[in-house]
Amino acid sequence: MTATTEINNIISEENLVYKKTDVLLDNEMHYCPGCTHGVIHKVIAEVIEEMDIQDKTIGVSPVGCSVLAYNYLDIDWQQAAHGRAPALATATARLMPEKYVFTYQGDGDLASIGCAEIIHACNRGENIVVVFVNNAIYGMTGGQMAPTTLENQVTATSPYGRDCASTGAPMKISEMVSLLPGTRFVTRQSAETAGAVRKLKKAIRKGFENTREKKGLSFIEIVGTCSSGWKLSPTQSNEWMKENMFPYYPLGTLKDE
């Protein structure tokens, strides 16, 4: 056997073996102390491992705090331009319908520059999962006001509090997309307690199961904290979230078909 023949045999498709590893990589995270992203990453990793779909899952992360998500979850990833993750996920899922495709987006990304993309992807009912992290602020770029910023909430660009008379009311994205025919599962969860994490994990798993059954788009909003943007400690952030965000963004499932 020649060296060339031996090499061809090694790299031939039938000899390729996917080497499974832990989905959650042992890398130090760049997220701020108390940030919800780390918990969400762990939950997604656990669901992927338990469903045994590590080699079939593709994540799409756009601009935002989650831009480096590929450093922490050992799956295939694609990088999208700001707000364009649903468009890229649409193409990926249509070209590779056997894959489990999900986007991982913040509120500044999804609800602002990417509002058109998410609305139309939901309306079309693309067979993807959307993980939407809502912390009511632009976390990565300095704590500016986002579409989800609460009324009177202080941010870098609303130092006297959000004035709804000039900026409009905070957008309830889950309520909006739940009205569209293409969404099959729309839920709003959190991750500040063990019980909340268990509910979140159940929701994310249901989203991936919907993808497997070709049911259409699953939209999972997660109300989270941004200690740095809010200028609060992690403990204070959790309390502020419960006192201020939960009443406006109530937890629970809005749609399940």
Task: Explain briefly what this protein structure is.
By secondary structure, this protein is an alpha/beta fold.
Shape: globular
Could you spell the SSE succession in H and E letters?
Answer: HHEEHEHHEHHEHEHHE
CATH-defined topology: Rossmann fold
Order of the strands making up the biggest sheet: 2-1-3-4-6-5-7
- Gap between N and C termini: 58 Å
Tell me the strand percentage band: 15-25%
CATH superfamily: Thiamin diphosphate (ThDP)-binding fold, Pyr/PP domains
Kindly report the average pLDDT value: 92
**Sheet with most strands:** 7 strands, mixed
How many distinct helices? Answer: 10
Question: Can you describe what's shown?
Answer:
- This protein is an alpha/beta fold.
- It contains ten helices and seven strands.
- The chain has a seven-stranded mixed β-sheet with strand order 2-1-3-4-6-5-7, with helices on both faces.
- Residues 7-14 have low confidence and may be disordered.
- It comes from Marinifilum breve.
- It holds the Pfam family TPP_enzyme_C.
- Keywords: Oxidoreductase.
How are the SSEs placed, and which strands pair?
Layout lengths: L2 H9 L25 H15 L5 E5 L14 E4 L5 H11 L4 E7 H7 L1 H10 L4 E6 L29 H4 L5 H6 L4 E8 L3 H19 L4 E7 L3 H4 L3 H15 L3 E5 L1
Parallel strand pairs: 1-2, 1-3, 3-4, 4-6, 5-6
Antiparallel strand pairs: 5-7
Helix pairs in contact: 2-8, 4-5
Key features?
257 residues; alpha/beta; Rossmann fold; 7-stranded mixed beta sheet; 10 helices; 7 strands; 16% strand
